[in-house]
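Sequence in, structure out.
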Amino acid sequence: MKCVCLFRYLIIFGLLGSPGFIRAAESGPLLRFMSWETPITDLFLVVGKELKPLSIPAYNASNAVALQVGTFEVRLAKRIATAEGGLTTVVVAQATLPEGATGALIVLLPAAQAVEAMGPRLLVFPDSPTDFPAKSIRLINLSGNNSAVRIAKEDYSVPFGQSKVVPLAFDGLGRCLVTAAVLDSGNWTIVFKDMLAPAPTQRVTLLLAYSPTGAGTAMSFDEIQAGGKRFSTQFAIVLLDDVLGGKLLSRPAPEKGDRGGEVTEDRRRMKLD
């Protein structure tokens, strides 16, 4: 009988030690990237001595890439041809995450016209579940104008280039009415209005954006920051994440043509005119 029990223990320990049961090693902060209108495919994330290639979509979140444990410095590099005909690696953009951050959404902005030779500038929006928990919505305003967002019956203002995290207020069916508008030529223009119904473990990012090459006169990020207003195509993107056990379960980038998340596709919702 003892031999049978011992045999069972050996089998259990053998299974626990097999690749399918080994826990994945702890990773550093998970980073997802988003580009200002134009996709980027020629950058690398510096992770220790390794260069991880990045495929960064425009106004959409990339797949997650992990930094080393205990590392909070984000460095993006590019391979540049040398005079001798070879290639050299140059760091073209960098940013620092908040100490203890477990992840971030990083938006790449084009360099200012005066320093076009330099790489993109980075806007960092921390993703740590302690700062951005489940059942909350993160509002990011890259629309080019100041914005106002109504969550249920509460109004929140979000200046251009900034973000705000607020709790979702659900009705009896687990839905929340979200309306977002931008101030355009002195008038408020609604760019998003929908019932969102995320699961209890999910959180929502509502990104207000615009196309610099849309209708109207193009303006750079710097011109807008200096007080200029944006009058071209403006829209909103919904991104969805899962937060389980206090940790972020990162989702891959949505398919092309998707609205960004599953909130308005496969969950109970009411379409508003």
